[in-house]
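Summary for the lay section of the report: proteins are chains of building blocks that fold into shapes. Here we show the chain for sn-glycerol-3-phosphate transport system permease protein UgpA and then a coded description of the shape we predicted for it.
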Amino acid sequence: MTPRVVFPNKILPYLLVAPQLAITLVFFYWPASQALYQSMLKEDPFGLKSQFVWFANFAKVLSDPNYLNSIRVTAIFSVSTAAVSMIAALLLAVMADKVVRSRGLYRTLMIWPYAVAPAIAGMLWLFLFNPSIGSLAYLLRQMGIAWDPLLKGDQAMVLVVMAAAWKQISYNFLFFVAGLQAIPKTLIEAAAIDGAREMKRFWTIVFPLLAPTTFFLLVVNTVYAFFDTFGIIHAVTGGGPGKSTETLVYKVYNDGFVNLILGDSAAQSVILMIIVIALTAVQFRYVERKVHYG
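The coded shape description reads as follows.
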């Protein structure tokens, strides 16, 4: 039976959770309630006049072809970014786990890119693949590839996915390494003695035991792709060319801060919040069923 914790003062438990509750109320619930209220208003660009229109802004947004295009772009971008960053991080973590000498040095070098700000990471990749001055773009042209992400939407999408995934690989790598260290080496050694090859040992022992880590990173990378990649897209493509890389979060910024369509922008932010909450709930409801904690 688990012992019950008794506080000497009845007010002390509430004082301990008060800072976290205050932060949650100020930085989440209050902005969310303001966004929900503003999404039902029709305002002029200067905020001088407003009219309560209920759900008219939501109907307008959901019938806008540009917004539907942003949903499609976000789906492609988020799935690609999460898949590339997690697969690359898992591969690097498995390789780094095999290193005997200078293991700490390799892991430190792999974690460093996570300290780079998203906008800086975007500019690094933009300089490398700029069609005019980029060194890697020059190599692509030498290989006969007509590389120009400033004009071709599919190439722009590839560029922002690579930049966003590169930024997140270090974070995923850190957790995958921790997960690999938690796996008992005796299980792998026993499988090797039984004649299981390296790939079979990975898929039958290592990867199933990494399921909790993989599920956690799946949720984190989904939220990252939806929200934290704004700086990368803003620095690299600005949502172009032809709105081919305009994700939902970037369209919220573009309509609200650039075009000053405040009601539509607020409605889009509410829809985006609902989408992310729904995706997270679905992941916990259905994906976590296949996760085994042991």
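Put simply, here is one thing we learned. The beta strands are 41-43, 50-52.
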